[in-house]
């Protein structure tokens, strides 16, 4: 008896074992809570006479969607509508991330500029955009800015080729005709070739300290190859020009006002946060670094580019990743201005038409979670690459 | 939070009532409503003629009057009702989860909603159909001219589906811009984002009044769908469903029998057995609903008969000035027809 309790108390006394016990208990409690939640939901469903299931994904959706990156008609399924909504979310998120990053870096660097005016502009930008609710900004861009543009008949046009009006922006587009497969292949080849050129140049630079002019060579590969393909196949592409026909412009590509407003609002708003992150990152690099760079004879721009920013990136990247995640999640505010994103199409219209609330909300949450995890994963890889290599 | 517990407790009641014979007067919803002292009624975010708050937050409209009639039937007091504004998208989940006791929110009866969403519709307050509104300057005079048009509408509505059918059947191109809230959809239409706005025709009449220059807009003559609008309750409480159903029927029967808020006192002395049964002078119909026998007297005295609420909210006596049309009594060539009280 005595020995056993001794053994037990010594086990419990061992911090490692104690840690394991605590974790097992925590896990059990979590599992219990989840089990309870799930059985509760299942109960509620069966009380309402509903069955949990995903068969509805094959049913005909029956509603139209204004922007579809993959073929979709009213006869397509709810599953297809989910894909359309998801791609629309990814489109605005990807474009938003690119624009917000470029803008955020420019403004962040602007806040540290020697030039008084630039510094003030950057400060006002950050303080204004960061402090206004995003939803308000989205609605402002949509209704106050784009909404007040003239209609398609009175709208603005540039060289009769680009059009801007309250139906969006219209640009000419490429139409691929049969035989354009060669062009596609040549494009891919061009990209691969450009990659190889950069790689070879890098290897050579590391080994010999200097290399051939990689950039012009790469550009030649990127443009020359497809051009050669075009000439060889007798131009199997044509341009589609937007032209006013009936109610609206037909032909070309249309950038929807909903996409435009959402994109501008999301990227200018997120840029204000990124600017602060960039500023903090640059200020986080010890002053001696830039002094040393300048005294080595580098110009201010060179010092920024080769010495400061690479070091600042290590501070910038982790919080930058969370801004990317925020932007993606914030894109679900799209419902307010009718941009057909995942939440609007799937968790909105589809949910309402099918009544499959639990299934659809679960799926939507899973999709957002996957997007976020994937973004975080990609940023972690990048972060690992730029980490200080310790020797 | 408390709301959740309420609905949980309510769900418990609902299950009990399926297994044991009803205890006390009326089903679980009626008992719960009586205990809290008011009816919680789901209405729209604001649609003139149907459910619309004024500056002081007082609601009015034909859908609102259905809720008030229900409060009159239960409590003899048209103010024993609270309103929960709901967007088209939120309404069904709100009802299912017990946030409201009923929906009276220009909601179309459809098979999907009845069967798959587990709702029960209790009658038709207003026979409607979907229409289009356009700017007169566009020169469009018929829905058949709308090929290639951009159409604004609201998500979570039958409208969104009907419009797809309409263009699909005619092989016409269209673009749909679907907003969450009506106000934004209308704003976008007015700004010219869309060539037309589409919803129930009654809604178009209401919305036209709110536009900056109502005369610059035209409601197209075509009606592209059937939209029977009516109150809905949760499945599983037959007594509550009956109360809501017969509240509306009582108003329609009252109109048919010529009983109105102005002549109700004389009518109480009527020798007509149909009127006597309606007003509870004979029989005990109110009690069999779990109410008092003068339930319909309270409805008619305090809210009015169907003709009165139609006229006051959407008809000739209102700014909307919509014709009775399909909503005339069956005897006058319309569709409004209530089963007899006997
Ligand atoms: N009757 C249709 C449409 C109902 C509907 O939501 N109509 C809109 C436009 S008239 C509305 O009431 N909007 C007011 C709001 O969202 O509060 C349905 O049941 O789906």
Kindly identify the CATH topology of the largest domain in chain A. MetI-like fold
| CA(first)-CA(last) distance of chain A | 56 Å
CATH superfamily of the largest domain in chain B: Periplasmic binding protein-like II
What can be said about the biggest beta sheet of chain A?
4 strands, antiparallel
CATH topology of the largest domain in chain B: D-Maltodextrin-Binding Protein, domain 2
Structural class of chain B: alpha/beta
Order of strands side by side in the largest beta sheet of chain A? 1-2-3-8
Cα(first) to Cα(last) distance of chain B is 44 Å
Structural class designation of chain A = alpha+beta
Number of strands of chain A: 8
The most extensive interface, with participating residues per chain, is: A-B, 39 and 44 residues
What fraction of the residues of chain A are assigned to beta strands by DSSP?
A: 5-15%
- Kindly state the percentage of residues in helix of chain A: 55-70%
* Total of DSSP H or I helical runs spanning 4+ residues of chain A: 12
The level 1 CATH classification of the largest domain in chain B is Alpha Beta
Spans where pLDDT lies below 50 across 5 or more residues of chain B: 1-24
Shape of chain A: globular
Any overview of this molecule?
- The complex is a heterodimer of chains A (391) and B (342).
- With 391 residues, chain A is α+β, with helices and mostly antiparallel strands.
- Chain A folds into two domains: 46 residues; 243 residues, MetI-like (MetI-like fold, Orthogonal Bundle), CATH 1.10.3720.10.
- Chain A contains twelve helices and eight strands.
- In chain A, the strands form three sheets. In chain A, strands 1-2-3-8 form a four-stranded antiparallel sheet. In chain A, strands 4-5 form a two-stranded antiparallel ribbon. A two-stranded antiparallel sheet of chain A has the order 6-7.
- In chain A, helix 3 packs antiparallel against helix 11.
- The radius of gyration of chain A is 28 Å and the shape is globular.
- In chain A, 29% of the residues are buried.
- By secondary structure, chain B is α/β, with parallel strands linked by helices.
- Chain B folds into two domains: 199 residues, Periplasmic binding protein-like II (D-Maltodextrin-Binding Protein, domain 2, 3-Layer(aba) Sandwich); 96 residues, Periplasmic binding protein-like II (D-Maltodextrin-Binding Protein, domain 2, 3-Layer(aba) Sandwich).
- Chain B is built from 14 helices and 14 strands.
- In chain B, the strands form five sheets. Chain B has a five-stranded mixed sheet with strand order 10-9-11-8-12, with helices on both faces.
- In chain B, helix 3 packs across helix 9 and helix 3 packs across helix 13.
- The N terminus of chain B is likely disordered.
- Chains A and B meet through helix 11 of A and helix 1, helix 4, strand 9, helix 6 and strand 10 of B.
- Glutathione binds next to helix 6, strand 11 and strand 13 of chain B.
């Amino acid at each position: 008896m005595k020995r056993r309790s001794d053994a037990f108390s010594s086990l419990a006394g061992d911090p490692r074992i104690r840690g394991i016990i605590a974790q097992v208990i925590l896990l059990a409690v979590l599992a219990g809570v989840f089990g309870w939640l799930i059985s509760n939901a299942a109960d509620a469903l069966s009380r309402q006479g509903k069955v949990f299931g995903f068969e509805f994904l094959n049913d005909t959706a029956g509603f139209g969607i204004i922007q579809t990156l993959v073929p979709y008609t009213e006869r397509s399924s709810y599953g297809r509508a989910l894909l359309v909504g998801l791609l629309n979310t990814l489109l605005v998120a990807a474009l938003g991330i690119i624009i917000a990053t470029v803008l955020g870096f420019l403004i962040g660097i602007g806040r540290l500029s020697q030039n008084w005016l630039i510094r003030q502009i950057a400060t006002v930008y950050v303080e204004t955009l960061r402090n206004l609710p995003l939803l308000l900004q989205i609605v402002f861009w949509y209704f106050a800015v784009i909404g007040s543009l003239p209609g398609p008949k009175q709208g603005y046009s540039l060289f009769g080729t680009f059009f801007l009006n309250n139906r969006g922006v219209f640009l000419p587009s490429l139409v691929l005709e049969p035989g354009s497969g060669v062009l596609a292949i040549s494009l891919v080849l061009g990209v691969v070739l450009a990659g190889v050129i950069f790689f070879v140049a890098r290897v050579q630079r590391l080994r010999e300290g200097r290399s051939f002019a990689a950039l012009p060579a790469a550009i030649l590969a990127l443009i020359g190859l497809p051009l050669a393909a075009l000439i060889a196949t007798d131009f199997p592409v044509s341009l589609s020009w937007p032209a006013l026909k009936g109610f609206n412009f037909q032909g070309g590509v249309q950038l929807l006002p909903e996409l435009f407003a959402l994109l501008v609002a999301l990227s200018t708003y997120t840029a204000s946060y990124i600017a602060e992150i960039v500023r903090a990152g640059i200020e986080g690099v010890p002053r001696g670094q830039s002094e040393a760079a300048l005294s080595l004879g580098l110009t201010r721009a060179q010092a920024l580019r080769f010495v400061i920013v690479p070091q600042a990136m290590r501070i910038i990247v982790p919080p930058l990743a969370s801004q990317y995640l925020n932007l993606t999640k914030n894109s679900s505010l799209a419902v307010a201005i009718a941009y057909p994103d995942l939440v609007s199409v799937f968790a909105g219209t589809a949910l309402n038409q099918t009544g499959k609330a639990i299934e659809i909300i679960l799926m939507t949450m899973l999709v957002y979670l996957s997007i976020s995890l994937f973004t975080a994963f990609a940023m972690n890889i990048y972060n690992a690459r730029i980490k200080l290599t310790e020797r | 939070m408390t709301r959740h517990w309420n609905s949980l407790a309510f769900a418990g009641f609902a299950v009990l009532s399926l297994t044991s014979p009803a205890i006390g007067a009326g089903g679980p919803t009626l008992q719960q409503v009586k205990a809290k002292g008011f009816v919680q009624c789901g209405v729209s975010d604001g649609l003139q003629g149907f459910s619309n708050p004024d500056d002081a937050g007082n609601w009015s409209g034909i859908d609102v009057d259905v809720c008030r009639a229900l409060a009159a039937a239960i409590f003899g007091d048209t103010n024993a009702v609270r309103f929960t504004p709901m967007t088209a998208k939120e309404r069904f989940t709100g009802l299912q989860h017990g946030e409201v006791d009923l929906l009276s929110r220009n909601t179309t009866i459809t098979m999907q909603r009845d069967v798959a969403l587990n709702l029960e519709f209790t009658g038709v307050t207003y026979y409607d159909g979907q229409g289009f509104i356009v700017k007169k300057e566009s020169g469009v005079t018929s829905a058949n001219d709308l090929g290639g048009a951009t159409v604004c509408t609201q998500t979570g509505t039958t409208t969104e589906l009907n419009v797809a059918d309409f263009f699909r059947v005619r092989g016409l191109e269209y673009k749909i811009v679907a907003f969450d809230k009506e106000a934004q959809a209308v704003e976008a239409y007015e700004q010219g984002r869309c060539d037309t706005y589409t919803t129930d025709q009654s809604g178009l009449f209401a919305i036209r009044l709110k536009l900056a220059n109502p005369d610059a807009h035209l409601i197209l003559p075509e009606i592209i769908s059937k939209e029977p609008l009516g109150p809905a309750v949760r499945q599983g409480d037959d007594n509550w469903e009956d109360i809501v159903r017969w509240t509306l029927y009582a108003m329609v029967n009252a109109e048919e029998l010529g009983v109105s808020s102005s002549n109700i006192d004389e009518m109480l002395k009527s020798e007509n057995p149909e009127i006597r049964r309606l007003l509870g002078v004979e029989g005990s119909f109110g009690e069999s609903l779990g109410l008092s026998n003068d339930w319909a007297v309270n409805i008619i005295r305090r809210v009015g008969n169907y003709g009165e609420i139609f006229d006051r909210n959407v008809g000739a006596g209102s700014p909307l000035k919509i014709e009775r049309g399909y909503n005339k009594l069956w005897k006058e060539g319309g569709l409004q027809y209530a089963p007899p009280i006997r």
